[in-house]
Amino acid sequence: MRRLRWLLVPVVVVPIGWLLFQGFDRDPRELASPLIERPAPAWSLTTLDGAVLSSDDLAGRPYLVNFWASWCVPACVDEHPVLAAAQERYGEQLTIVGVLYQDDPADARGFLDRYGDAGYDHVIDEDGTLAIDYGVTGPPETFFVDADGVVRHRQWGPLSEASMADQLAAILPAAAR
Amino acid sequence: MTRWLPAIAAGCLLALATIAVVATVRPAPPATPAARADALAAELRCPDCQGLSVADSPTSSAREIRRQIDELIAAGASDDEVRAHFVARYGEWIRLAPSGPALWLLPFGVVLAGVALLGAWLVRRRGEQPAQEPLSAEQRQRLHDEAEALDA
Q1: Span A33-175: which CATH code?
Q2: CB atoms < 10 A from the CB of B46, how many?
Q3: Yes or no, beta carbons of A138 and B48 under 8 Å apart
């Protein structure tokens, strides 16, 4: 009994230590989005080119909603070529929509001039309603929506080539290996 | 010490029961729409800040959330419906305080369990100490004799 008592110390301390170790390492914003497996939010916004684009226009096709900003460096700069490469590779099969997150449209145009415009549309989320509907905590954040209009994945932080390929496979038949 | 233990335990239980009652029977919500919106803004996390509430933050996300709270209240939404509106978008993370009294009571329960274990341990340790019996006349005499022998 006397020896068993000492066993109590690791039994109590080890799980608490493990929890703290796990917790310190993670950002709470990385928690799963409640939107996963739910219908994507609907919207209708003006693009940088002055046209009106709405989620209804994208019905029946898989699409990516990428929240970004010209002030989001280096993360948005790093992931920009990944988005451009996906658009170039899949063309008509995949729609990418950039959403300006708390950004000035002129600054966003400057960013695209500097780092390359991949040709997909960027919408101006003036009052931030779309960012709130998607539960965005900061750019870059990307949502993968399948052809049925259901959110399948949220990428928190910049996309890499690997994460892009993995998540596209879930919404785009052509990307599935 | 042992005599006081039941009184301490009763006191702790009473405190815990009081907290449970206060947690479940919350004071009535503020009446005016502006006061309700203020209270809700203080409960919700500003999404692009570090640990600030919507009420304490000047960012445009916080301003837009505040505007949506006002709009929802004006449309007749209850406080719970306003909370649910944002939880459906951000998850429980958007709430600065945990929901339900169970999570509030957990730390108090842990402290109480610790106090109870400490009390039980102290009581046991007291019981283990050998009792001090008075010396017999024979032992006294022997002590006296041996002390005398040392002095001699």
Answers
A1: 3.40.30.10
A2: 24
A3: yes
